[in-house]
């Protein structure tokens, strides 16, 4: 036990040692692959990488001890609450999609005599309590709940709109309920999970920031159109990239392309086969098998939940790979190890660039510019 704890601490120390020796460009690449926040200088980047690495080390330990980990990613919303659950076994190269759904919280969790969720503390308490019970009792409990951080304002308003305030409250109370339920049931193997706040900017950066879009937009849209001038930081463009990326991943999982990043359960494989091969413009909504009570018929919430969950799996994969490198000489500094560390970060970026290029050809149509429908 002591040896294992020393090795865990040594891994984080070794990672920080090689981060100190690396240049800022390498640290920026590493932060991207691990899902860490970027920084304005090397010290801040190192601190951010260490913060994320501690979380990933805990997730790695769970995978090592149980030979599998599961992540349930949540995109919070009152009318469009989406979640996706993935597992990744030690003897499997690819993660497995287990669940993918979207629900209207007020329809499912408010008492029958109330029909709209207001800012009343009673409404928040009832909905989030019932939601917490649903996530921890009715669904299989994952190793990690990850909840997407919500923005404080709409992009066009200087004030905080009520629908956005509701979602912010939902996010905060749900995080607190999940965290405290685990604390109050300390020692229960069923409720031994992690709760993490997932930054949408880091997830979007991981999946979208290296996607070449300029030529595709110039080719597919009129020269003076708004679409042809969009930058990768545009919410409309990044939303379109993410939705098309999820479609790519689902097609690959079915074997319709040579690009396979996830595996499917037999149930999910059968469900997707009934929608995807026959319709080149298929909707994620249809793939998820949602009914009329599942909120607005839109794909971005489903895509975000899907990619948040998968991002944590890929960040863990990258952490395991870089951890193995920095521990080659038992965590001690070695120039050859530093060269391997630098090469890994460089080659990982090249591989991610190549992967993201696959989405470019799909940007023939873009999602509407309307903001998220919180209500």
Automatic annotation (TrEMBL):
Entries under InterPro entries matching the protein: Mrs1/Cce1, RNaseH-like_sf, RNaseH_sf, Ydc2_cat
Matches recorded under Pfam families: Ydc2-catalyt (PF09159)
Domain of life: Eukaryota
GO-annotated cellular components: mitochondrion
Annotated GO MF terms: crossed form four-way junction DNA binding; DNA endonuclease activity; flap-structured DNA binding; Y-form DNA binding
Start and end residues of each Mitochondrial resolvase Ydc2 catalytic domain: 71-321
Name of the protein in question: Mitochondrial resolvase Ydc2 catalytic domain-containing protein
Originating species: Torulaspora globosa
Lineage: Eukaryota, Fungi, Dikarya, Ascomycota, Saccharomycotina
């Amino acid at each position: 036990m002591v040896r294992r704890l020393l090795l865990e601490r040594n891994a984080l120390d070794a990672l920080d040692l090689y981060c100190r020796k690396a240049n800022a460009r390498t640290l920026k690449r590493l932060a991207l692959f691990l899902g860490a926040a970027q920084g304005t200088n090397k010290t801040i980047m190192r601190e951010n990488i260490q913060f994320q690495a501690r979380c990933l080390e805990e997730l790695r330990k769970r995978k090592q001890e149980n030979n599998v980990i599961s992540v349930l990613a949540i995109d919070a919303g009152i009318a469009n609450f989406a979640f996706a659950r993935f597992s990744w076994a030690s003897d499997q190269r690819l993660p497995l999609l287990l669940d993918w759904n979207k629900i209207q919280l007020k329809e499912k969790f408010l008492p029958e005599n109330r029909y709209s969720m207001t800012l009343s503390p009673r409404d928040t308490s009832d909905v989030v309590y019932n939601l917490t019970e649903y996530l921890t009792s009715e669904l299989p409990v994952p190793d990690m709940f990850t909840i997407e951080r919500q923005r404080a304002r709409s992009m066009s308003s200087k004030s905080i709109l009520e629908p956005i305030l509701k979602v912010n409250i939902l996010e905060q109370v749900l995080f607190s309920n999940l965290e405290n339920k685990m604390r109050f049931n300390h020692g229960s193997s069923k409720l031994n999970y992690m709760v993490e706040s997932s930054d949408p900017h880091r997830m979007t950066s991981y999946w979208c920031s290296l996607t070449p879009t300029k030529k595709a937009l110039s080719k597919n849209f009129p020269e003076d159109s708004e679409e042809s001038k969009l930058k990768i930081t545009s919410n409309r463009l990044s939303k379109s990239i993410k939705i098309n990326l999820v479609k790519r991943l689902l097609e690959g999982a079915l074997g319709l392309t040579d690009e396979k990043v996830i595996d499917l359960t037999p149930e999910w494989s059968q469900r997707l086969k009934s929608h995807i091969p026959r319709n080149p413009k298929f909707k994620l909504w249809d793939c998820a098998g949602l009914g009329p009570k599942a909120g607005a018929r839109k794909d971005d919430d489903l895509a975000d939940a899907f990619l948040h969950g998968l991002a944590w799996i890929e960040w863990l994969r990258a952490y395991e790979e870089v951890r193995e490198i920095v521990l080659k000489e038992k965590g001690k500094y070695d120039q050859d190890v530093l060269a391997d560390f630098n090469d890994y970060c460089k080659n990982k970026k090249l591989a991610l660039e190549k992967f993201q290029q696959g989405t470019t050809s799909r940007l023939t149509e873009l999602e509407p510019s309307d903001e998220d429908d919180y209500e």
